[in-house]
Amino acid sequence: LRQSKDAVGVEVMKLGEYWPFSAPISKRVEKLLEKSDLEMYRKGTRSEARRLGVGAATYFRRIVEGQWKLLVKEIR
């Protein structure tokens, strides 16, 4: 908070703002994942883009743990 003699002003600083956009997701992945998993996938791709490999791996691991049977079936 900064004050001057003539007027009172406020200084605002943003911290930890996430990028609202992520890389395009293929139609096959969209079709394969449920809505909640798709959001985790988007968070994982955003983390990858920001070079946060451990964070990205955590999101992708959650998807695999919940959908591993479906994913193995698709791979076969």
Report on the structure:
The chain has 76 residues and is mainly alpha-helical. 58% of the residues lie in helices and 5% in strands. It contains three helices and two strands. The radius of gyration is 20 Å and the shape is elongated. A hairpin with a 4-residue loop joins β1 and β2. A two-stranded antiparallel sheet has the order 1-2.
List the defining traits of the structure above.
single chain, 76 residues, mainly alpha, two-stranded antiparallel ribbon, 3 helices, 58% helix, 5% strand
Q: Which strand order spans the largest sheet, edge to edge or round the barrel?
A: 1-2
Low-confidence stretches: none
Q: How large, in whole angstroms, is the Cα Rg?
A: 20 Å
The topology string of helices and strands comes to EEHHH
Query: What integer is the average pLDDT?
Result: 80
How large is the count of helical segments? Answer: 3
Fraction of residues in helices?
A: 55-70%
| Biggest β-sheet description | 2 strands, antiparallel
Strand content: 5-15%
- Content-based structural category: mainly alpha
Number of strands: 2
Shape by Cα distribution: elongated
Q: Distance between termini? A: 60 Å
Summarize the structure.
With 76 residues, this protein is mostly helical. It has three helices and two strands. The protein has a two-stranded antiparallel ribbon.
SSE layout and pairings?
Layout (H helix, E strand, L loop, with lengths): L1 E2 L4 E2 L17 H6 L2 H15 L3 H23 L1
Antiparallel strand pairs: 1-2
Helix pairs in contact: 2-3
